[in-house]
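Re-running Retropepsin-like aspartic protease to confirm reproducibility after the cluster update. Everything else is unchanged from the original entry.
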Amino acid sequence: MTNAAHRPACFLVCGAALWVAMATPWAQNMPGGGPAVSFNGSLGSQAALLVIDGEARTVAVGSSVKGVRLVSLEDNRVMIEIDGKRQVLQLGASPGRVGNGQASGGSGRKITLSSGPGGHFTSAGSINGQATQFLVDTGATVVSISQAEADRMNLNYKEGRRVMTQTANGAVPAHVLSLGSVRIGDVELRNVEAIVTPGQMNFVLLGNSFLSRFQMKRENEVMTLDLRY
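Result of re-run:
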């Protein structure tokens, strides 16, 4: 298989140093060909500065502008909703415009991703019903989650098996657990192995405990994942 994604991150399971995302505002195409939206800052705790199709707008929590509703604002992330579909945007995430990363055709067996500048494949999705952002990392053995993101999603990772992982700063403790569900679009897998580690990451790394259940194919800037079983 052609190298499907650059490998910007990692732990002992993928044999590199922890990745720190570039702190650059970014634009995300919403599912269904919706507007490109980026989160560029907050005005207190009740309003966010969003750039919607290139136009900067101040949007209060609970209100809508140009069809984009601001559902919530916390820390350095917002949740927006367009046509009933929700998306998490993070301030200072991966640079550039990324593909919509949603499952195609509503079949429940196929995911189609478009790469952004730099060749990264990212996708909105959810873990145990909690919205998050994924980045495909074919070099990671398992799905990898930062402790801060795991806490936000209320994952009981401390009940998982404790292991030590090797980072650029030395060995650090981590926890291995099984995720009840990992969902992208209308494709959902259950009982997916994951590791929760300290440190800062702007994405959940979609490793091979998820990817190995699919037949992966890349043609130019498009990756397709077809469920094997």
